[in-house]
Amino acid sequence: MKFFIDTADLDEIREAESWGVLDGVTTNPSLYAKIGGKLADFEDHMGKICKIVGEDVPVSAESTAKTTEDMIAEGEHLAKIAPNIVVKLPICAESLAATHQLYKEGIPVNMTLVFSAPQALLAASAGARYISPFVGRFDDIGEDGIEQLATMVQCVKNYDFGREVEIITASVRTPNHVTQAALIGADIATVPMAALKKCLAHPLTDQGLEKFEADWKKVVEG
Ligand code: E4P
Predict the structure, then answer these.
(1) SS3 108
(2) What are the backbone dihedrals phi and psi of residue 14, each rounded to the nearest 5 degrees, phi first?
(3) Tens digit of pLDDT for each residue in 170-182?
């Protein structure tokens, strides 16, 4: 499984990058607003993220355009920021058409806000490079996000779209979301920094380390 970080915060991206586990970055309008991002700085900020992670690491920058024409224009514009930009589009009729055009131009699209298998299949058909089902938001409304993810992964994996299509497990809130996504065989989990830190921690690791340190102190002190 690949780990993406779900944030627009440069320090968090630098920290995850320093761990050597970062395969990608996803952002969205809410995450950019959360860091106090300004409209005028958006492209510059996406450029900074692309630079931190390096050219081989995909960075999703979301378009807020409403028409197919504007999505294509914004997608083409965003793609010029850096070679690792992925254009993120919310699934709808307009974005399917835009995805198809951007795909033909060689610009990768991450289809976001995906909540059903038919949506995922349509995204794959249109030419999306990545598909992002939101597991946590299903849980928020009392549905089982992991069960929904499993259905979407299975449906997409049943077919050969003639090009690489990867499922990004999005709206990840807990280490268990990561475990379950990996068991299902979802390609990627995009994880916020707080959840990524929870993935790294375990109380038995802490206890074990404490004991090793105490015992080693005895060895050192004779
Ligand atoms: C995915 O790409 C989205 O940015 C993200 O995972 C949304 O997560 P949320 O439901 O916690 O806002």
Answers:
(1) coil
(2) -60, -45
(3) 999 999 999 999 9
Strand 188-191 relative to strand 22-26: parallel, antiparallel, unpaired? unpaired
Per-residue pLDDT of 36-57, as tens digits, reads 999 999 999 999 999 999 999 9
Q: Which atom of ligand 1 is nearest to the CA of 31?
A: 4
182 backbone dihedrals φ, ψ, rounded to 5°: -70, -40
* Pocket lining: 99 vs ligand 1, CB cutoff 6 Å: no
In whole angstroms, give the CA distance from residue 28 to residue 47.
15
| Lookup: tokens for 174 | 């807990």
What's the pTM value of the predicted model, to 2 decimals?
0.95
Q: How high is the mean pLDDT of the chain? A: 98
Superfamily of structural domain 2-221 = Aldolase class I (3.20.20.70)
Closest CA to 58 of 129, 133, 152, 9: 129
Cα–Cα distance for residue pair 102/221, rounded to 1 Å: 66
* Pairwise CA distance, residues 124 & 86, whole Å: 15
In the reported structure, the alpha carbon of residue 126 is separated from the centroid of ligand 1 by a whole-number distance in angstroms of 22
Tell me how far CA of residue 203 lies from CA of 5, 172, 186, 200, 208, in angstroms. Answer: 23, 21, 27, 10, 8
CB 167 within 8 A of CB 156: yes
Ligand 1 center–CA 206 separation, angstroms: 30
Give the domain ranges of the chain: 2-221
- Give the span between the Cα atoms of 78 and 73, in whole angstroms: 9
